[in-house]
Specification:
alpha/beta, 46% helix, 4-stranded parallel sheet, binds iron/sulfur cluster, 366 residues
Amino acid sequence: MTAFLPFDRSLFEHPAKIAQIFNKPAIGVLPLHFPIELIEAAGALPVEVFGIQAPVSTSDRLAPPFICSLVKTFLETAMTGGFEGFKGFAIANICDSCQNAAGTLHYATQGRFFTVLMNLSMHPEAQSAKEFLRHVVLNVKEALEQGLNTNITDGKLSHAIRETVRLRLALRKLLEKRALGPLNISTREVIDFVRSCWMMPRSQAADMVESVLPRIQPQSPSGPGVLLSGIVPAPYGLLDEIEKAGAFICGDDLGISWRNTSGPYDTEGDPIDLLINRLLNLEPCSTLHFQRKDRGDHLLERVKQTGAKAVVFFRLKFCDPEAFDHPYLKSRLDAENIPSQMVETDLRDASFQGAATRITALIESL
Ligand code: SF4
């Protein structure tokens, strides 16, 4: 790990340490789109458990076979004591896997953790979405207040929103630098660093990113730029293989990084309205169904912004949202003569030789 990246990688393997390190009640959050600002405003620490890579045995017995490995490895960690010290969990109902996660978690851990399941509006442009989300956000607020025995005041919520926006914007600046050339840190370090930021108090994480930004610098590119798409680019060892094959990762449209830093970035006004407004105006995502915002247009725009010569799609097995989008996205890239390769991966299995061969073949063809 590069010396100037000040975070502890072992947090990913041992998230139970987090509650002790930051001395706050930890609430595990399954991405994406949960309004984490409400958790911070309740005096707790939202810990986004993005893509834990681990073998699974216990959770396979309880969760149905069609559940994605992001949820399976999360459940395995919960069922084998990996979240000891956590107070509860917050999950947005973005897909069947997440919906199953809440019920299975409650059953498997015998109600030891309180769980907030948020019924997100999948159609943010629907006429009723705003009113629906107001009920949802207020219900989530109430559930957190009860679970954490506290009051979420407007002042605390506004502060949490400001600090979360500061973190999102700082991370975007870091992620945007990749378009200028390979950074003096590897993509794997970038992803680990981003993951760690969503496990820390947001003010502390924003300070950390702002302080290292001047030291993260692009170098002259010696190979083609590749854009990554999907939810998590796992197994994470594959990222090193892309760089070893002579390409550099010039940007992404991944749930774990770029999409999770989506605006709007407004911080002024009624804080509940700000949360609702963000949920209504997120950037395109496989888990949302916009009628007027086209994810194909968005991907082509990301290709243009980053100067990518090719796109690699990471699809976790049984991730239906990404699977449904892929044929359309590929057809849009094909129409513009932008080569792409999809690799199907699994967080339960760290081996990646087959996927690495396909990606290397793509890079060699550029
Ligand atoms: S969006 Fe895909 S990867 Fe994320 S929880 Fe749902 S099925 Fe799993």
